[in-house]
Amino acid sequence: MSKLVGDEMLNLNNFLDLKENSKLLDIFFQIKKAVGISYLVGGSVRDLILGGKGKDIDIEVHKLSLDVLQKILEKFGKVKLVGKQFGVFRVESFDIDWSIPRIDSKGRKPKVELFPDMTIKEACQRRDLTINAMAINLDFLLDKNFSGEVKILDPYYGLKDLKNKVLCAVDEKLFLDDPLRFYRVMQFIGRFEMNPDEKLSKICISMDLGGVARERIFDEIEKLFLKSKRPSLGIRWLKNIKRLKEVMPQVYDLIGIKQRSNYHPEGDVFEHTMQSLDAAAILDKYESEHEKLMIMFAVLCHDFGKVEKKTEDLRFIGHEKAGVKIAKKFMKRLTNNSLLTKSVEKLVCYHTSPVDFLDQGSKIKAFKRLASKLAPEVTLRQLALVSLCDVSGRNSKRDDPLDAGEQKFNLFMNKVYELSLDKGPEKPVLLGRHLVGIIPEGPKMGEILKKAYHIQIDEGIVNVEELKKRVLKP
Predict the structure, then answer these.
(1) CATH number of 2-166, picked from 3.30.450.40, 3.55.40.20, 3.40.50.300, 3.30.460.10
(2) Integer Cα distance of 33 and 356 in angstroms
(3) Are 381 and 413 in contact (CB under 8 A)?
(4) Which of 36, 75, 294, 437 has the most neighbouring CB atoms within 10 Å?
(5) How far apart are CA 231 and CA 194, in angstroms?
(6) What pTM was estimated for this model as a whole?
(7) What would the pLDDT profile of 102-117 be if each residue is shown by its tens digit?
């Protein structure tokens, strides 16, 4: 949609989809009529330069008070206060943040002052990185003679840094005021495959990371996982600047854990995990972003247990189950999402099963039992995805994942589809209602139903009366 045509010009043939959004044009018109100026700012500009439009659009309105902007926006729909103290609004049906220029004080609960008359250069100065410190004056959208080329306001040379794939801080002091920016650097390294310049690296090496809420750290890791083709770059950077132990201690512990070269020619467990993580990032088999995030966390955690189970001859028997408690501890550092954590635990616990089942020629009942153990949090298909990434992380020649494991994945999934287990375990045939009046409700009934389900899975009996006879016989 967008193409860079010069050092300061952008060609926008269908900017913000405005050809089909006259209502948005009307908002810009009302803002201009009130003597305000609308700027596209931050990552929205960066994403346009890189060749597309991001999901999140940030528009900063200058020269208008917060109350005046709110009254204008209310003419076009219900206004949601994303954070009135921060000067940020949302209008229903528009995926846009509308804000007023502001200055934030230091700390977890910053004091915010709004400055509608701030210059665009001053407003850009509070941005974290130069690639996010560009803006576009949107008045051109109201120009009937618009030529299709728009000037990029770039007071801190973010365009040059974007071209050179270099991350630079806009203002060192302001950068240090917000430790969350450290995690944003990690995210951008993986997401855009860019490197911090020497000055930014020095800042990040000594930066105090205290006071950042785990939810905000999780948000940056989520972006790293969902928006990167090589998320390992961000984690490798943490290792290189000696901050990995502090940020992800369980991942740090993987460094130097040697493996048998005939199984893992790529090197230690850390290297294997990084390659596997990148394999998960580029996988095209996900059904949702939630699934992708779950798989990526599971892949990151899948070999945590090898730290405890390593033997002198480089075997790791039982590392799957040993890794469960370590993965749980890791996840709890980042999130209180119990469903995500439990899902990761189960995937870690059984991550070697798909390959083991194929190598051992496991029977139908083994597949059915495993599907039952995984439920209700995860499925055999999702477990197979983790296994596929595990097999792919074994490149001995470079740090890219191998295009491997597809054959075993397909063999395993063919069996899963054949047994109709791709969406979950086989449903029990004998239910509580079949035992009403025969067995009192309570623990005993639960035990009998569990026994019936095991017989159903192990012996393939799906007749209710036959199951009742088997579990009720004296």
Answers:
(1) 3.30.460.10
(2) 69
(3) yes
(4) 294
(5) 12
(6) 0.91
(7) 887 665 566 778 899 9
